């Protein structure tokens, strides 16, 4: 969905900007040329940011030997007895141990204390560091790592709208003058 939204918006805004500046009667004004360069730059930034949001590092805590062990005894007992872990709450680590801050009983990983705000996302079913919110449009967690891309994508949407609007305005500002001069 994120790809569709960004892709369609980019296509519309680029088409509008190019359309009004390259129209049959609209002479390519300087402002129009700048608008075309701007709109392509904005579209590129938006697409690159979207790609990073979808495929880049989103702060997911990976399952490694370090993050998985030691398994807390409560969890180990339940797993050995083939019991569900659903009723268990996250288990705090030993005091003063920064690397074993708390244990997520759904991902079965230790979350470090110095990793910023750690959160288990119920949509992604993963623990992430530096959590801000889960974005429904992109279907990804927005965390400290990809926040610049998230802001850039939204920023480029507004910048693109303004650029397209300016291009439309600059072309309509040129046309009536031509008409008025002829009459
Ligand atoms: Zn988790
Ligand atoms: Zn998420």
From TrEMBL:
It catalyses: L-cysteinyl-[protein] + hexadecanoyl-CoA = S-hexadecanoyl-L-cysteinyl-[protein] + CoA. InterPro entries: Palmitoyltrfase_DHHC, PFA4/ZDH16/20/ERF2-like. It is a multi-pass membrane protein. Residues 101-169 form the Palmitoyltransferase DHHC domain. The chain crosses the membrane at residues 35-55, 149-169. GO terms for biological process: protein targeting to membrane. The keyword DNA damage does not apply. The keyword RNA-binding does not apply. GO terms for molecular function: protein-cysteine S-palmitoyltransferase activity. GO terms for cellular component: endoplasmic reticulum; Golgi apparatus. Keywords: Acyltransferase, Lipoprotein, Membrane, Palmitate, Signal, Transferase, Transmembrane, Transmembrane helix. It is found in: Endomembrane system. Pfam families: DHHC. Residues 1-19 form the signal peptide. Its main location: membrane. Its EC number is 2.3.1.225. The DHHC domain is required for palmitoyltransferase activity. Belongs to the DHHC palmitoyltransferase family. This is Palmitoyltransferase. The lineage of its organism: Eukaryota, Sar, Alveolata, Dinophyceae, Suessiales.
